[in-house]
């Protein structure tokens, strides 16, 4: 039996694939390479190239590889850009998830771990976000992730009395950074770490998008969590589902203590040894002031922990990027 990782050639997905392989859970990758890289897929891991919007392809992959569960990482993950591209965001994140669930039902695959997002909360008015906080997404991206969670919930209800009832959990997190393997690094044109790395490599000055947020230093505050920790939590969730153990419908993979963009910039200069004063640009649409989540439920059930300091996050990401 194997686990299908949608988006398994991407930055987060490729780390999940490695964590599955280390746990002897036989990963299989499906990815259309729109933002992923075939070189990120380890040798010996089956790779299906194509979009999960192709229901026949997904169902065939599930059957061909005797898949017992799916870790659904594929998606369009750019909150700010989603404001300009809402229809594309919904197609990639909502319609694709619906098709995936339909294919899973046809192939009698009943376990799914969904890569959701802390963006489902919008701009919370509490210091720490818990799973039961009201959901008020501030961008089409956040809305699409929340709808994805609803799809899982509703399909689980619909199949509850069947031979293969859907079992699911959604993992909500925000800024994923660092690297757990020098082969894999974040190639996003929108995420903070790769934007800063590219600027430093090219001799440009990194930029902060907005310094007038309602935070301690004026720059927005987020959970920054290491990609290897994120991948490990996905694997434990898959193991709980496969073993039929109790599992919550959603978990925050939070840091408990957020970091501001300015604090990240300070760590960048410190770790890379390149001194700079960031330029200040305008805010990005859809960016909330602050989102910091607890990880208490995930620590209880998924062995969730933040095992990396901010300097280690920067160092592992910087070393992986420079290796390329």
Automatic annotation (TrEMBL):
Family matches, as InterPro entries: Epimerase_deHydtase, NAD(P)-bd_dom_sf, UDP_G4E
Reaction catalyzed: UDP-alpha-D-glucose = UDP-alpha-D-galactose
SUPFAM superfamilies: NAD(P)-binding Rossmann-fold domains
Cofactor: NAD(+)
Domain NAD-dependent epimerase/dehydratase per the UniProt entry, residue ranges: 3-254
Biological or metabolic pathway of the protein: Carbohydrate metabolism; galactose metabolism
Recorded GO MF terms: UDP-glucose 4-epimerase activity
Known EC number: 5.1.3.2
Pfam families: Epimerase
Domain of life per record: Bacteria
Signal peptide: none
Keyword field: Carbohydrate metabolism, Isomerase, NAD
Transmembrane segments: none
NAD keyword on record: yes
Family statement: Belongs to the NAD(P)-dependent epimerase/dehydratase family.
Protein's name in the database: UDP-glucose 4-epimerase
Organism the protein comes from: Microbacterium alkaliflavum
Lineage of producing organism: Bacteria, Bacillati, Actinomycetota, Actinomycetes, Micrococcales
Protein's gene: galE
């Amino acid at each position: 039996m194997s686990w299908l990782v949608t988006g398994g050639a991407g930055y987060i997905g490729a780390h999940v694939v490695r964590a599955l392989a280390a746990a002897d859970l036989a990963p299989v990758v499906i990815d259309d390479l729109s933002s992923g890289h075939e070189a990120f897929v380890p040798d010996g891991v089956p790779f299906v190239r194509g979009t999960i919007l192709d229901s026949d392809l997904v169902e065939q992959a599930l059957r061909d590889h005797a898949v017992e569960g799916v870790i659904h990482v594929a998606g369009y993950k750019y909150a700010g850009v989603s404001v300009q591209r809402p229809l594309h965001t919904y197609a990639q994140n909502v319609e694709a998830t619906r098709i995936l669930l339909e294919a899973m039902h046809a192939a009698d695959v009943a376990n799914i771990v969904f890569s959701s997002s802390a963006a489902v909360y919008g701009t919370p008015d509490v210091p720490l976000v818990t799973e039961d906080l009201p959901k008020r997404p501030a961008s089409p991206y956040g809305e699409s992730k929340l709808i994805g969670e609803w799809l899982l919930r509703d399909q689980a209800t619909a199949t509850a009395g069947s031979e293969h009832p859907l079992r699911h959990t959604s993992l909500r997190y925000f800024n994923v950074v660092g690297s757990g393997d020098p082969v894999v690094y974040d190639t996003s044109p929108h995420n903070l770490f790769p934007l800063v790395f590219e600027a430093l490599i090219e001799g440009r000055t990194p930029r902060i998008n907005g310094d007038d947020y309602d935070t301690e230093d004026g720059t927005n505050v987020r959970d920054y969590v290491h990609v290897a920790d994120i991948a490990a939590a996905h694997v434990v969730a898959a193991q709980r589902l496969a073993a039929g153990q109790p599992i919550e419908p959603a978990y925050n993979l939070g840091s408990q203590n957020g970091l501001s963009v300015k604090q990240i910039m300070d760590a960048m200069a410190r770790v890379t040894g390149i001194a700079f004063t960031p330029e200040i640009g305008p805010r990005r649409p859809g960016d909330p002031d602050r989102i910091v989540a607890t990880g208490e439920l995930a620590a209880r059930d998924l062995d969730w922990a933040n095992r990396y300091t901010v300097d280690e996050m920067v160092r592992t990401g910087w070393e992986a990027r420079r290796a390329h």
